[in-house]
Amino acid sequence: MRTKRIKTITFVIPCYNSAAYMDACIESILGGGRDVEIIIVDDGSTKDDTPEKADEWAQAHPDVIKVIHQENAGHGGAVMAGLRAATGVYFKVVDSDDWLDHTSRDLLMAKLRGFIAGDNLVDLVVCNYVYEHIQTGSQRVIHYRRALPTNKIISWDEVGIFGPGQNILMHSAVFRTQVLRDCGLELPKHTFYVDNIFVYTPLPYVKTLHYLPVNLYRYFIGREDQSVNEPVQLGRLDQQMRVTKAMIDAYVLPDEVPSKRLARYMGGFLALIIAASSMFAVLRADAEALEMRRQMWADLYAKDVKMAKRLGRHPLVLASNLSSSTGRKLSVKLYRLAQRIYRFS
After folding, report:
1. pLDDT tens across 206-246, in order?
2. Taking each helix axis from N to C terminus, what angle separates 237-250 and 287-303, rounded to the nearest 10 degrees?
3. pLDDT higher than 80, residue 146
4. For the chain, how big is the Rg over CA atoms in Å?
5. Cα-based distances in Å from 265 to 36, 99, 271
6. CA atoms within 13 A on the CB side of 190
7. Three-state secondary structure along 247-307?
8. For 56-88, what is each residue's pLDDT tens digit?
9. What residues have CB less than 8 Å from 250, skipping those under 6 apart?
C-alpha cells in the first residue's frame, strides 16, 4: 500500500478573475517538489476563465494541486478557505499576480524539510521579498539584516531593531500552519488589506523564528486596479479602517504580549497602520473620511487609554495627525517624500 506523502508546505493562491497572470504564479511554485501542496482558491471568478484554468492545473498535477471554487468572499475569505483545507506543515500565501524565485524557493524547501526531519518545527520563517515595479522596471529588495540574525533559530528576545520598511509582511512570512490555527486567525470577508491582520494576530503564538536571507517573493506593483494603488486605497478607506480596528482589538500592548521586544515590534507595526489610515483620510479630505479617522481614534481610546496615548506619541502617528490645515499639508508632503524613497505604491 502506498504511503501518503507528508506535505511540507501549503501554498495558497487566491484567484479572482486572474486568468491573465495566474499561470506564471503557479509555474513558479510547481518545481518545489511533490511534497508541496498548492491550493488554488477560485474566489467566485465570473469575468474570465479562471475557474477552467484552475481545474486544468489540478488535472495536470493531481498530487500537488487542489482547487477550491467558492462564492466571492474577498481576499481574506479566500485565504481562510485555503487555511481550512491546508495539509502542509507550513503555510504561505502567494497572490496570483506575484511569483516566487526558483532558486530561493528551493533553498526554502530544503530548510523546511530539515526542520521537519529534525523534529524542530520553527513557528515562523522570514525571507526577503522584492518589489517589482511595472512602470519603472525597478526592483527594491526588502531584507531583515540587523533586525534578525541570519540562519539561526531564535526567540523574540533575540531580535534587533526593525528599521523603516522592515515589517514582516505576508510576502516575507512562512508560518507553521498550526500556529495560524492555534491563534484563532479570522480574516474578514470582502475586505482588502487583511494581510496585515494575517501577519499581526499570530505573532504572540510564535515562539521560534528563523531568518533565511533569500529573495523569495516577487511582489508585482504598479497595475492601475491593484489594491495598493493610491486612488484604489482612498476609495477603500472603509476597508482599511476595518483592518485597523481589527488590529487595535487584537491585543492590549504591551500588557498582553509577554516578550518586551515583540511588544515593541507590534507597537511599531500598529503605529504604522494607524498612521497610514490617518494619512489616507487626510488625502481624501472629505467629511466622511475625516469622520472615519475620528472614529478610529475613539476605538483606540476605548480599547485602552494608556496604549492609545503611547501610540499617539509615535513619530509616524504624530506626523500623520497634525490637526491644522497647514499641518495636514505638511503631513501630505512627508508622505509623498516617503513614497518616493520607499516606492511602496
Report:
1. 999 999 999 999 998 865 555 556 788 899 999 999 999 99
2. 10
3. yes
4. 20
5. 31, 28, 10
6. 3
7. HHHHCCCCCCCCCHHHHHHHHHHHHHHHHHHHHHHHHHCCHHHHHHHHHHHHHHHHHCHHH
8. 999 999 999 999 999 999 999 999 999 999 999
9. 197, 200, 201
Alpha helices in the chain (DSSP H): 22-30, 50-60, 74-85, 102-117, 177-182, 195-200, 230-235, 237-250, 260-284, 287-303, 305-312, 315-320, 325-342
Adjacent-strand bridge partners of 221: 133
Q: Decide: 277 and 261 in contact? Cβ < 8 Å.
A: no
Cell of 29: 511554485
Task: Please tell me the distance from the alpha carbon of residue 94 to that of residue 28, in angstroms, as a whole number.
Answer: 10
Pick the closest to residue 163 from 184, 148, 180 (CA basis): 148
SS3 34: coil
Where do we find the cell 494603488?
229
Q: Model's pTM, two decimal places?
A: 0.93
